[in-house]
Amino acid sequence: MGLVHFRYQISRRTRRSPGSRCSRRIVRRDTGFTLTELVIAMVVLAIVAAVAIPSFLGSRNSSYDKEAQTSIENVLKAAKFHYQNQGDFSDASSAQCGDSTGLAADLQKLEPGIDVVASSVSSTNSRIVSVQAVQTWDSTGGLLGCQGFYAVAFSSSGSCWAARIILEGKYLASGSVSPVVVNAQTNTSNNAVTTWSALAVNGNAFGVLKPQTSAADGDNTNKLGLIKTACKARTQSTGVADLGGNYIAPSQFYSSWRDVVAAPYIATAANCITTDTCAVGEIGPGGGTVFYVSATNFTSTGSDCGTSCKYLEYAPIGWIVSTTPSGQTNCEIAGTSTTDPKCRMFGAATTYNGTATAIGSGLANTTLITGASNTVGRAATVTRAFRGGTKSDWFLPSRDELNELCKYARQQTTGNTSTQCSSANSLRTGFTSGNYWSSTETGAATSIYQDFSTGSRGNRDKAELDSVRPVRAFG
Fold first, then answer.
1. Tens digits of residue pLDDT in 239-273
2. DSSP state letter for 215
3. Which residues pair with 133 in a beta bridge?
């Protein structure tokens, strides 16, 4: 009994020992995590996510881009088959070369798995391809016909992918401008491309418009919404040589699909030709300089843009010289390469018609004036006959249009028609100091003029000799 009791006491003491209680406390504490342990776990998870998520998104975007590229390639095959049957890229029903729903319908029959739409319709996903046929020219300015074709598709990655076929021709616009070019890289590694050259080439070419800047595509800062709106063949087939905000320049096309946008082929001046891409100071589609950008569309009756005009451009200095261009009649005081010509409005007028003053009314005024008598060699007729950029809708500006031109000439901010031109700042090179005629008539014998040396304006006898400068509207 004594031995048994002794062992029992030892056992009880062991269970009640401080070490035993401490062990139990340690066991209970090990069932949770400390704050430090939780922070460490979160940091580890963040590092893993930072590595894995971009990789996943990159793979997903590559998949989206590949789908858009595949759709375009299928449409290109259909276009080539159409060319073999048609003899060019025009539509089969009307032989139209341009924004033709007929061409889209022709290709839709050949490629029913893809929605083929006309060039004025934006692609909104990789299964919708916007198409357009374009004309090409040879080195002598000879028209070769409908020898070009564009196919454009929008990827869910936010990029707009485009492909071009040119089967014959050296230029995408008349007058030996906008050459058919393809970029050739000296190094195919995206992060090591340092030298690019634009090579004249026919055949297939591929390009991309991307919504973000990075080391690979650092010359394009467009946002997703702008690119999505511009992802249509009409915009991407402009043929304009310079880099644009929402179109792929000809020299940004490659001989294979790439995910970069190269440094652009830059001509002597910035150029713009499509809606939402032009800024004041850029060169417009008529070869003039943009001097007015409207916040909303305006109507210019008789202009190519009709009710969808947004810009005004002015003809360059030297637009008409003493050796009169074919089809034009110079002013009494002929223009030179550095000065504008000086015309009268009328010799003797008994009626007047062009009284409108607003932006967009200049062409209508000019047309009314040229329909009156005694206008040969006068301001309205001379400006109306100008054909810069092969455009036939040049005109004498209205009062408000001339005021905006005066502000640009004096290096003042344009766009607010309620602000009148003033003498502030110096006159730009290329403008004549003195009076310019507008097309706004105020009476049988008077019209509105504006003095580009002071910015002032008023009524003036139509028999006076004042400077004239054609302008045109476009959208």
1. 766 555 678 878 778 888 875 543 333 333 334 55
2. S
3. 149
